[in-house]
Amino acid sequence: MIIIPNNPYKTNSKAEYRVFDKIKESFINNNKYIAFHSLNLTKHERKRFGEADFVIVCEYGIFVFEVKGGGIGCDNEEWYTINRYNEEYKIQNPFKQAEGALHAILKEIQESHKFNNLRIPIGYGVIFPDVEWTHQGSEWDLYTICDSRKFKIFESWLRNFFKYWHNKSGNTYNLSSENINDLKQYLRPNFELIEPLHIKLSKLEDTAVALTQDQYKYLDIVAANKKVLCSGGAGTGKTFLAAELARRLANENTKIGLICKSNWLKRYLESKIKNEFVTISTIDSVRVDMRRSGLACYDILIVDEGQDLFDFDDIDILENLLDCGLADGEWYIFHDVNNQAGLFVDTKMEILELLESYSPAKIPLTTNCRNTSSILNKVQSLLHLDMGNKGTGIGPEVHEIINNKESGLILKNEINNILKNGIASESITILSPLSYEESSISFLPESIKNNITKLDDFSIRSFPVENISFSEIKNFKGLENEVIIVIDLINPATIDDSYNKVLHYVAMSRARALLCVIWE
Length: 520
What we know:
Layout: E1 2-4, H1 14-24, E2 34-41, E3 50-58, E4 61-67, E5 71-75, E6 78-82, E7 88-91, H2 94-112, E8 122-127, E9 145-146, H3 148-151, H4 154-166, H5 177-187, H6 197-214, H7 216-223, E10 227-232, H8 238-249, E11 256-260, H9 263-272, E12 278-282, H10 286-293, E13 300-303, H11 312-321, H12 325-328, E14 330-335, H13 349-356, E15 361-365, E16 367-368, H14 373-383, E17 389-390, E18 399-402, H15 407-420, E19 428-432, H16 446-449, E20 452-454, E21 468-472, E22 481-489, H17 502-508, E23 511-519
């Protein structure tokens, strides 16, 4: 006998588990017997919510079984069970329960109009696996009852049970194998509903938010020190911590400078931090911004993407932004000198050594709160670079495509497939080492190009934009989106370890949930 599901549903009835095992052991290798455990009833006449403990469909018809474990009693038509502590609990009449469930199933079948020409034999029974049933009554026939004695020879009892109902008037015909399978499919259909990609991504986003909240514990460590070098790979929350630290430290008596290299990152941070005591500047514009604000120096410096400022010219500027200089001033520098150095300047490790000589607290961030484990594993295997551990969940597999000189067609298909999965255009960013005009975007049809916004200093303030967005990789440092499509990069599998893989690392690490790469 086939039983659906293959393992029993969770129930408080241990008796049902025992009956489940007996049914599973009956009519072995005979697919003409199909049983269901805990079948929901949508057409029950007396119950808003109902279910049948067990239903068997076979050549003899459809049969419903009610299971009652423990001791059983009836007093003036009031039924009750008795547990092992001799405590009594009222129950419904099990025979009426079984009969009511059977008619609910039959009504459901009839109203479906799928079996209008099919005559279906029916019957019901009650299983009492823990007691011997010797009582006669007008409401039942002993053939419909399986007590503890018959339970030991359960398959034999079932055979006699089916014969009993088959001999009843109106039941003397059989169902074919096709009828049985059709009823099986109707009562509990086999189907597979694929979870849409956008639902998966939204779940991952919730996890990412929770992990980001977990990063707050580092703020307490940072706040307890006056000089901090905070390091971490892409996605470990450096920009989040820098921004939140600025909010926490800002007050009317403290002037804070939040400094970065990228003008885009500056604009993005300005959209996230609205505080009159925090001045957000690039290293190149900081002096002008200070003059406009009437400031001679800052009380506190916070630097994001610090590896981009690790050269002698920039460190001199930082030195003069604090009244006491870097040696005695208060500063917090967030960096990834191991993996993201060299995009804007030729990073000098001597600068890091200089900063370390000022005895700052060194805080390593190791928990990745941006990328899925699928993305983390792919970056690790392709680039042999670390992006932290844990991640935000498993996520969709990274989609890699080798460009066969039809880059426009490949990119178009990739965009269309993502949009068909219910992903919003604003959740998609295309990254290239090339400019918009020189990239594979130029091979796209105008209908798709019209839905792509080329990010710039202005549009980044309201990121994510309404359309699909495009950016050069180096400008997108410190930023992220749900879906990233990387184009125009050489397949790292074809290059040696001496090749600078920073662009690959930055581009691939921007994806929060789904990463697609079209390798050249």
